[in-house]
Every structure is written in C-alpha cells, then in structure tokens.
User: Which sequence fits this backbone?
C-alpha cells in the first residue's frame, strides 16, 4: 500500500473531494484525520473509513481560526505522534460579478480559501520540520489558472494558493518537505451541484473527455503526490480537468 504507516490530515474532508481523498488514503494504509467545519459530516466520513476496518479520527475545525487550527494539529499529534501529510482541501465559493460582489463575500472566500490554507500549512510545517520530512498538498483550481466569470474572489484565492505552494516548495525543500497543489476542473461535488444544469452540460461538452470529473479522480492525484512515487516532485500544480480550458 502506498501510504502504509503514514498519518494524513485532510481539511474539508466531510464530503466531496475531501471525503474521497480521505477514503482513498485510508485504503492505501494511512491513518487519517478527518477535519471539517461540520460535525455531522466529520462523523459520516470517519464512520465510512471505520466500516472498511481502517483507522480514522475526526476533528471539527474552522480553518480561519488560528487557535482551532493549532488545536487540530495538537489532537493529531496526541492521537498518532506524527503528521506526514496534510491536504489543505477546505474551501468555499460566494460568487458574483465584479460590480455586484459584496465586500463581505470577497473577504469570506479569502479567509477560508487563502488564509485558511496558510494557517493549516504553517502549523503543519512546524511539525514536519522537526520530523525532517512531510508532504503539504494544497487545493487550487482550474479557475485559479484561467479565471472564471463571476468568481473574482475564488480565482484570486486559488491563484494565491499556487503562489504559496511554489514559495513553500522553495523554503521547505531543504527540510525534507515537499509542497504541491492540485487544480481540479469541474468535479461533481456538492459545490458544483449548486450550478445550473445548463452550465454543467456546457462544461461537459467543452471537455475533450466529454464528462465531468469525479471526486475520486482528484483523490487519485492527491494520492500520487502524497506517495513516495512523487519523491522528486515539488512546487508543481497538477491539473485534473479532463482537458478543459476555460
């Protein structure tokens, strides 16, 4: 198994891509920490993993709150004594065109998608530096690469995550820590389910593979980057888009 004996912490792991990644990591031998803002979703993912006879614990956390993030890391270390992998997957949308977007919605998305990634990565990096190794994986998006109508805030945060990923790869490589990002395209998740059906159909038609992605498609990308198979991969952005270009 590719992650045998590893400890992996995944934020936003209550549903969608985060849950699929947690389950995939558990299947590959990792002891998984499920972190999410919503307690019921945490419990659901933990139970799915335990039903497979794999090991997991759940932690409710708001990634915008530094104290809660520090507590999350401490609870992980209390349970497993180490932290090998963190997947900074937690994210939100609050769409609106430039002239209609509210300051509240702009700030809210920045707080979760950008500062939340910073909070979690910084806390995890301090542990990994002491260990002498670790993997930090960040969720960006095809929107961060190409932009998207009505998503000024989301595009800005996902582009910012790419910048942080490349910066941290340069800073932490000598400490034995790899840092990479995954850029999903349109994936069938609770987040995309809010989009109009005609928009989803349009995205499906634009994709060379003529389908939308599944959470498992992205989970497989995270698995590769988390594993020793990617031991010489750092500072990269792996697109999982089905070839779509917005």
Assistant:
């Amino acid at each position: 198994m590719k992650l045998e004996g590893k400890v992996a912490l995944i934020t936003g792991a209550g549903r969608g891509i985060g849950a699929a990644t947690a389950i995939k990591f558990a299947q590959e031998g990792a002891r998984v920490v499920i972190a999410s803002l919503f307690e019921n979703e945490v419990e659901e993912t933990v139970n799915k993993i335990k039903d497979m006879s794999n090991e997991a614990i759940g932690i409710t956390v708001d990634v915008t709150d530094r104290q809660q993030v520090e507590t999350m890391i401490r609870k992980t270390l209390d349970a497993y004594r180490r932290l090998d992998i963190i997947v900074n997957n937690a994210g939100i949308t609050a769409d609106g065109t430039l002239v209609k977007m509210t300051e509240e919605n702009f700030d809210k998305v920045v707080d979760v998608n950008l500062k939340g990634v910073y909070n979690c990565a910084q806390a995890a990096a301090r542990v990994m530096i002491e260990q002498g190794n670790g993997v930090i994986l960040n969720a960006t998006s095809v929107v961060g690469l190409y932009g998207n109508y009505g998503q000024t805030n989301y595009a800005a945060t996902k582009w910012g995550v790419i910048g942080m990923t490349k910066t941290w790869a340069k800073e932490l490589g000598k400490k034995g820590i790899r840092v990479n990002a995954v850029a999903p395209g349109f994936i069938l998740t609770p987040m995309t389910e809010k989009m109009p059906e005609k928009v989803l159909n349009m995205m499906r038609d634009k994709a060379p593979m003529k389908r939308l992605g599944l959470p498992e498609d992205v989970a497989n990308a995270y698995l590769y980057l988390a594993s020793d198979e990617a031991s010489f991969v750092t500072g990269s952005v792996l697109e999982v888009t089905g070839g779509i270009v917005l």
